[in-house]
Amino acid sequence: xxxxxxxxxxxxxxxxxxxxxxxxxxxxxxxxxxxxxxxxxxxxxxxxxxxxxxxxxxxxxxxxxxxxxxxxxxxxxxxxxxxxxxxxxxxxxxxxxxxxxxxxxxxxxxxxxxxxxxxxxxxxxxxxxxxxxxxxxxxxxxxxxxxxxxxxxxxxxxxxxxxxxxxxxxxxxxxxxxxxxxxxxxxxxxxxxxxxxxxxxxxxxxxxxxxxxxxxxxxxxxxxxxxxxxxxxxxxxxxxxxxxxxxxxxxxxxxxxxxxxxxxxxxxxxxxxxxxxxxxxxxxxxxxxxxxxxxxxxx
Length: 299
What we know:
Blueprint: H1 6-9, H2 11-41, H3 48-74, H4 82-114, H5 124-157, E1 159-162, E2 185-190, E3 193-198, E4 204-208, E5 211-216, E6 219-224, H6 227-231, E7 239-243, E8 246-249, E9 253-258, E10 264-268, E11 273-276, H7 278-287, H8 292-298
Parallel strand pairs: 1-6
Antiparallel strand pairs: 1-2, 2-3, 4-5, 4-8, 5-6, 7-8, 9-10, 10-11
Helix pairs in contact: 2-3, 3-4, 3-5, 4-5
């Protein structure tokens, strides 16, 4: 098997911090650069005002980036969905602009009030149109960065796909249709190499937008499918849904830890943990596949 570099194996543990640090760095550099430009272009303006303008804009943008991440994940821009996805993103860019402007104006008004001054945004319709010309570019750059980042992660993490379905058995048109066979293996592409992953080796599955993440032997592979559709292709005696976005292979569950909320935390044999909601918790015990020690922990 071909795996990603050693540094990438440790990346998931710090991934969220790296992503946050990236956007903080980008927005901080943009704010600093725009502040310097304003100081040069507007020498008669008090030095603190451009700082307030740019920092407020950067903060408002930063607060909206998580929402853009969620929206872009649910409405990805791909060739086959471009006709429906592009108009939705245009609408989203308008919403982004309105929220961005409202947020930065509130922050500026608060900052000006602290020094005993008053901030005026000007003619709202005219200024909003002007801001949209800038915000639509910012929105497009953020979406492009997210798409590029996903592409890079797919290349490093690996992307799985179903093997081609077998040819149908010979028979007449009146023959009863046979149920679709469940895939025993998946083809995984990673770093320009391909290998097979057995379905029984999948430890748990997580919904990730239009993909599902397959966790196998400490590695994650993405497969383009909806969560519900993919679960229908797995053995229901082995795989069980434990959360709205997670399913586990019961053969790989090591421990069930009940939580005060009524939910549970599943510890897998590789040490990873998976959330389990209370409405799905009973399904694990009913299957009878978890070890007696684990079942006792659940009680």
